[in-house]
What we know:
Elements: E1 3-6, E2 9-12, H1 23-27, E3 30-38, E4 41-42, H2 45-58, H3 67-80, E5 86-93, E6 111-118, H4 125-129, E7 131-137, H5 152-163, E8 168-173, E9 176-180, E10 184-188, E11 194-196, H6 207-218, E12 223-225, H7 230-234, E13 238-243, E14 247-254, E15 257-258, H8 266-282
Parallel strand pairs: 7-8, 7-14, 11-12
Antiparallel strand pairs: 1-2, 1-6, 3-4, 3-5, 5-6, 8-9, 10-11, 10-13, 13-14, 14-15
Helix pairs in contact: 6-8
The structure holds pyridoxal-5'-phosphate.
Amino acid sequence: MRTVFVSGKYVEETEAQVSVFDRGFLFADAVYEVTSVLDGKLVDFGGHARRLARSLKALDMKCDMEPAALLEMHRELVARNNVEEGLVYLQVTRGAADRDFAFPAPETSSTIVAFTQEKPLVNAEQAKTGIKIATLDDLRWGLCDIKTVQLLYPSLAKMEARKKGADDAWLLRDGMVTEGTSNNAYIVTQDGVIVTRDLSHAILHGITRKAVLHCAHVLDLKVEERPFSVAEAFEASEAFITAAAAFVTPVVEIDGRTVGRGSPGPVTQKLREIYIAESQKAAI
Ligand code: PLP
């Protein structure tokens, strides 16, 4: 039985309660973060706390806990649940109030929920096999840089990809890849250049993306932050995704076409190795 956190209290998961009037439930009026846990420690909590602050600001939402208290709570949850490897999910909502499209009074308490989930990350199966991608239209709203819980379209897209025999979808706007359903998307060109979509409202500004691009810089690899097409991806020597819950995961097939040799490529593997080593060193 897991211990979860609900607005100031640590409770057993079966005892946890959130109001039916909560705006996270009624309007998806909520933001979230997923922080990975390695060796019982949090990976890049600072990055996640900063992005949470950015999401909150963009939605004119408050969080009734300061970053330092959130950090302490994350550590407490990891300790209470003996998590060695996995993740901490944090959600902040605008709180509970009578149903109304207009925001409730500013003094309404935010709802803060967090829980842990154990998951093999370093030895994840998909890191060895790579994943298959299907491309689909990106029908999400326009503010994908805000990490809100309105995840229905990404969820539908993932199911559609599965129906097509793939593991996940890459989403397309005007024929160009934005990102995966829950990860950032990359290709490596035949000349060894890493290409990933530039930062804008079209994608989530991944915490793993930032760290991995830093690793690429340290390795002296060339990076181009720009849109790329599916046609360009078909010609790539490698492809991969990044996310807190996936680290760097190879992509071996796109729309039924083999990427490179159809197995995890050397650039992808090197980036994964270095990202994991750096994360283990810096985790708190
Ligand atoms: N893009 C989307 C749409 C996501 O949902 C996520 C993570 O959940 C990412 C990218 C990767 O972000 P991060 O590296 O911060 O986990």
